[in-house]
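Dear H.,

Thanks for agreeing to be a second pair of eyes. The structure we're designing against is below in token form, covering all 148 positions.
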């Protein structure tokens, strides 16, 4: 089954997991604390809807079918590099950050899936459907990082 932020059921499942996360939850890997991770996944969604800009880079992952394999099928490595722009914002109050994440996901799902979408810095041009799958997987990856 393919999970995506375009699915209301998948969004609810992620939201239920987020509701079980606390700001002091210990990470199972990596350097994020829970508030910084929440900023990171929020800003990734904000990037897809054009609220955050990330500088493109040359990457062999920009080309099909390699990008699809890495985005959707191969296991993601723990502590993989990310766009520096998705690491700069400092978290505010926990409840504010949770609300910001939910609002970003809501804004994403209000966009037309077949409309224009930003180019991913590593994976190149993505459709709205691909962004939905990638952002679901990204959020899932980081919630697992904190055991939820």
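And this is the sequence the design step returned. I haven't edited it by hand at all.
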């Amino acid at each position: 089954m393919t999970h995506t932020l375009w699915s209301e059921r998948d969004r609810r499942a992620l939201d239920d997991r987020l509701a079980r996360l606390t700001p002091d939850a210990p990470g199972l890997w990596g350097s994020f604390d829970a508030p910084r991770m929440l900023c990171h996944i929020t800003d990734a969604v904000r990037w897809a809807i054009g609220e955050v800009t990330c500088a493109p880079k040359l990457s062999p992952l920009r080309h099909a079918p390699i990008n699809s394999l890495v985005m959707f099928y191969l296991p993601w490595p723990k502590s993989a590099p990310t766009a520096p722009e998705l690491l700069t914002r400092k978290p505010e109050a926990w409840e504010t950050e949770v609300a910001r994440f939910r609002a970003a996901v809501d804004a994403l799902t209000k966009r037309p899936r077949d409309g224009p979408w930003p180019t991913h810095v590593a994976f190149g041009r993505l459709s709205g459907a691909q962004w939905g799958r990638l952002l679901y997987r990204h959020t899932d990856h980081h919630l697992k990082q904190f055991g939820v």
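Two observations from my side: The CA atoms of residues 12 and 22 lie 18 Å apart. Residues 8-145 form a domain with the Four Helix Bundle (Hemerythrin (Met), subunit A) fold (CATH 1.20.120).

Warmly,
E.
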